[in-house]
């Protein structure tokens, strides 16, 4: 029997991808046990009916054939205008590649940036698919740990120490899983390392509309960084269009042209009626995006208020995104053990910090993705459970 490619079989290094608690929770639900899920970044609202109506009109109007591979001209222009308005960086449609979601954009960007067998750097904690994505393009995935005591802000000196022989660095701000937004000082240090070592910077900015405190700065806006930065964007989080699978890459025109060639040989683009729906959604403007983000801002405020009333659970500064990262080290348990026990005893499912790397050990990630009342009740129960373990 032929063997499978090691590129595929080593995607998660033959081990766990960190989602066992989530899968256990889903199995319990399938067997009839109610579970409060605070695991994945899925909105508790569905895609807005007006967006679905635009998609329906487009599809019924005939936009169901092959669409232009880099993306329809109007959508590329809309994304370019949006990026230029938000960042101040001159951006043209030729700087934009429309992709089947942010995950596809991450894969294509790393295939563009990373010669086979070369190091690709990423920061720990990380979104669960990052290391597998890097291995999937044939790169050597190298994590660089950030520290809870530093608020999970990356240290440029740590990145610099790993940068020799690397082709790229992947960052994510606002960050999943921590909710941290990287400061200008942090990003300037990262930019200096990228220029010194001639690295591509791949910046995952899918949470750029979910900013609760401070400001999001795209590193593409820093001096001399536009020529070496590939920015990942997506409609999933900003417009609750997770299932529509539509995102983009913004980068230098030459890189985008080559990535478009890749799409011709892989995805062959994104359905035209989905692109038309995304165009409609983007044209609804910042007010619409703020409406989609509002529930998570409320629940973040709820989180802060609830955690003020106890001393055992520590909140990592949650300045953006739809998650909070909680330090539960006072229990003496790993994040994985705590999450499993919480699921067994209270039927509340959270993600262990260890699902996102070694740096988040002793933490859990809580997705703020259920209605306010049930979210507050679950968080209070979690805090009470932590207190019981600390007695």
Automatic annotation (TrEMBL):
Identification of the protein by name: Aminotransferase
Keywords: Aminotransferase, Pyridoxal phosphate, Pyruvate, Transferase
Domain Aminotransferase class I/classII large: from-to ranges: 35-381
Enzyme Commission number: 2.6.1.-
GO terms for biological process, alphabetical: amino acid metabolic process
SUPFAM superfamilies attached to this UniProt entry: PLP-dependent transferases
Highest taxon in the source lineage: Bacteria
């Amino acid at each position: 029997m032929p063997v499978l490619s090691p590129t595929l079989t080593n995607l998660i290094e033959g081990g766990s991808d960190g989602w066992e608690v989530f899968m256990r929770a889903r199995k319990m639900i399938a067997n009839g046990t109610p579970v409060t899920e605070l695991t994945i970044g899925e909105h508790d609202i569905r895609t807005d009916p007006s967006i679905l109506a635009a998609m329906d009109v487009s599809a019924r109007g005939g936009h169901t054939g092959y669409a232009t591979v880099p993306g329809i001209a109007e959508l590329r222009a809309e994304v370019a205008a949006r990026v230029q308005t938000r960042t101040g960086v001159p951006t043209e449609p030729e700087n934009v590649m429309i992709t089947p979601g942010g995950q596809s954009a991450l894969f294509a960007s790393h295939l563009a940036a990373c010669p086979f067998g070369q190091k690709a750097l990423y920061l720990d904690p990380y979104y669960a698919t990052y290391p597998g994505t890097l291995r999937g393009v044939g790169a050597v995935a190298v994590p660089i740990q950030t520290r809870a005591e530093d608020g999970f802000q990356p240290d440029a000196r740590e990145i610099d120490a790993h940068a020799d022989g690397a082709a790229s660095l992947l960052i994510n701000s606002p960050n999943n899983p921590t909710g941290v937004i990287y400061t200008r000082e942090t990003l300037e240090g990262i930019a200096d390392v990228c220029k010194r070592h001639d690295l591509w910077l791949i910046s995952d900015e899918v949470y750029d509309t979910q900013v609760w405190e401070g400001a999001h700065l795209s590193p593409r806006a820093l001096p001399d960084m536009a020529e070496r930065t590939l920015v990942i964007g997506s409609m999933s989080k900003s417009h609750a269009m997770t299932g529509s699978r539509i995102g983009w890459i913004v980068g230098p025109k030459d890189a985008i042209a080559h990535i478009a060639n890749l799409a011709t040989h892989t995805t062959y683009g994104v359905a035209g009626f989905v692109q038309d729906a995304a165009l409609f959604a983007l044209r609804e403007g910042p007010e619409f995006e703020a409406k989609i983000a509002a529930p998570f801002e409320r629940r973040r405020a709820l989180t802060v208020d609830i955690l003020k009333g106890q001393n055992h659970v520590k909140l990592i500064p949650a300045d953006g995104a739809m998650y909070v990262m909680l330090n539960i080290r006072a229990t003496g348990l790993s994040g994985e053990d705590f999450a499993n026990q919480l699921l067994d005893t209270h039927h509340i499912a959270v993600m262990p910090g260890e699902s996102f790397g070694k740096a988040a050990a002793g933490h859990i990630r809580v997705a703020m993705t259920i209605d306010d009342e049930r979210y507050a009740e679950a968080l209070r129960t979690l805090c009470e459970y932590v207190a019981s373990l600390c007695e």
